[in-house]
Every structure is written in C-alpha cells, then in structure tokens.
Amino acid sequence: MRSLSDLIEQYLREQLKKVETLEIQRRELARMFRCVPSQINYVLETRFTINHGFLVQSRRGGGGFIRITRLNWEPGEEFSEILEELLEIGVSQEEAELILKRLIQTAVLEYEEAVLLNQVLQDVLINEAERNGLGGEEQNQLRARVLRALLLFVSGRAHAR
Amino acid sequence: MRSLSDLIEQYLREQLKKVETLEIQRRELARMFRCVPSQINYVLETRFTINHGFLVQSRRGGGGFIRITRLNWEPGEEFSEILEELLEIGVSQEEAELILKRLIQTAVLEYEEAVLLNQVLQDVLINEAERNGLGGEEQNQLRARVLRALLLFVSGRAHAR
DNA sequence: GAAACTAAGGTCAGGAAAGGTCAAGAAGAG
DNA sequence: CTCTTCTTGACCTTTCCTGACCTTAGTTTC
Questions:
Q1: What are the tens digits of pLDDT across the range B129-160?
Q2: Which fold has domain B4-70?
Q3: Where are the domains of chain B?
Q4: What CA–CA distance (Å, rounded) separates A36 from A119?
Q5: CA–CA separation, A139 vs B116, rounded Å?
Q6: Is the CB of A2 under 7 A from strand D?
Q7: What is the mean pLDDT of residues B68-94?
Q8: Which of A34, A43, A32, A93 is closest to A68 using CA atoms?
Q9: Strand D positions closer than 7 A to protein CB
Q10: pLDDT tens figures, A139-157
C-alpha cells in the first residue's frame, strides 16, 4: 500500500507534466490530502530536490505560496553532474552570462541577483587573472569553479526562501 | 492567489516598461487598488529598492508625488572603463565621498544629487554589512560596485539631457 | 509676511495569514 | 527486532495589510 507521501508526489508530478511551473498553497494541498501542512514539506524535501530535477521556492505570509519548477535538464542527468561537466569544459564569460540569463527566465534568480553574481564572477576573474597571470583556458576553468560554487549556493538557498 | 502587493508591483513594473521615470500620487494609486496609502510604501520598500534596480524619490505636501526611476544597469562606453577600475581596487567610504566631490566640481553632479547618492551608498552598505557580516575589504568591493552602478545611472541620464 | 489651513507623503506598531523547523512517535521493510 | 521512512503537532519566522499619528509643502487669511 502506497504511503500518503507517494500519493502527494504522484499528484504533484501529474500536475507538473502539464506545466513547467506549479504554484500551490501548502494549506490548500494539505487540506486536499487531509494531512498536516508540514507533511507537504516532507514530500518536497524527499522527492522534489534539485537532484530530482525540481526547484522549489516559497514565500511566507499572506498570499504565500510554494512554487515547484520542473528543470529541463537532460533526462537522467543530475544537477550535480551538470555542474561537474561545467568543470571539465570550462565556461567562457559569454556562456556564464547565458547561464545566468536562463536562470532569470526560469525565475531561479532575480535580475539584480544575477547582476550581482555576474559582477562577483567578473571581480574574481579580474583579480585572479591579474595576480596569477592566467591564460584563457585557465580563466574558463576558474570561472566554472566559481560559477559552480555560486549556483550550488543559490540552489541550496532556494528552498529556504 | 497573489497578494495585493504583487498586483501593485505588477502594475508599476508594467508602467515602468514604457517609461524610465514614473510619477504617481500615493493617494491615487491607493484608491485604484482600494487599499490604505501606506500599502504603497510597503510595496515600494519591498519591491522597488536600489537592489531591485529602481530609485524612489518623493515629495510631500500639496502637489506631492512619488517618482520611481528605473535604473539603467547596462554598461556604458568609455566612462564605464574608468568605473571598472574602481571595481579592482575597491572604494572606501572616504574615497567614495572624494569621488562624489570631484564630480560636483566638474559639474557632473548637482550637490543635492551627490548627497542623495552618498546616502544611498551608505544605506546599501549598512544593510549588506549587517546582513552578511562583510569584512572591510569586502565592503570596499561592494561599495565600488554600487557606486559604479549609481554613476552609470547618472552618466546615462546625463547623455539624455 | 506670519499664522492657520489644507493636501499631500512618511513612520511605526500590531494583528493576521501564510510557510518553516524540529523532535517524537507510528508504521513498514528486511 | 532493528532500521528507515512516514506522520503529526507544537512552536517559530516571514510577509502582508491596516490604521493611528507625524512631517512637509503649498495656499489662504489677516
């Protein structure tokens, strides 16, 4: 017999087949499944993580909501693997900006956050490149490492918001 | 269901797509959305800050208004290269004030504008330093970035005049 | 020209409406 | 029986909205 968590997961996945981004109210969903609200958190934490290919964001207070976004990574590929890939191939400044733009479009980042991240990225690169005289390829490697760190940070923070 | 604040934000952003500077009356806007005037302040304070890329000014009394300016973060031309240098070295509070003074002397800025920019600069620093516990060097870096953004905005506007 | 009036916008604290966290017990799996 | 997963409830934090009261800037009156 399937658990309640399984049923909730199934329901949410069903919805997420139709749309890329789903906005729900924790209260509402809990009422639908006649469970305690924190049960919803449990489902999200165990079944809709970044490694499952989802991004969960939320807002408290009046009119609060939980937003689940289905990330369109290649099937089977995990977020962390994508980041590892970045490391191997390196990231040019243009590619980095493309990645950030995409993250804005998918509402992972606010515009001003992306601007700030990009600036941080450039700062680090300028500093390091000058100090250690990095070649183009080495710069791309460094950029990949920094971008990866930033994105891991952002994805970790996403659920808390 | 979206909150009233979201709707007001949406409306203002819509308007600000068409124009760079928007002048509204708090009363009027509050009447449109059938809310208390201070609700407007709440929206401005939480969604139209410097970090969101907006500058909000206002005047009280008869014929009072609220002016929202969309900051142009797009990098400019040569002027920006000078500003990029700021990024590398960081800017202390004293240096920032010196820079602003020089800009007044060279008639790039009005005195009141410089005072305003300085205030904005300090606001941002106080906020960020408190929230993230920045060290002295990090503060200088952040100050450089913010000052750069502010000056880019001002210089962009100067061209328009 | 100063005082009183009027017409704005600003501040702040409190309550309500969400969602988050955590620990403990229950239920399943092996 | 033991280990993991699930479920619940008490308590916490954040966000939103309102209303009472304050400040500022024109306008009118004397």
A1: 555 555 665 666 666 666 665 665 554 443 33
A2: Phenylalanyl-tRNA Synthetase; Chain B, domain 1 (3.30.56)
A3: 4-70, 78-160
A4: 43
A5: 38
A6: no
A7: 53
A8: A43
A9: 5-10, 13-20, 23-27
A10: 666 666 666 655 555 554 4
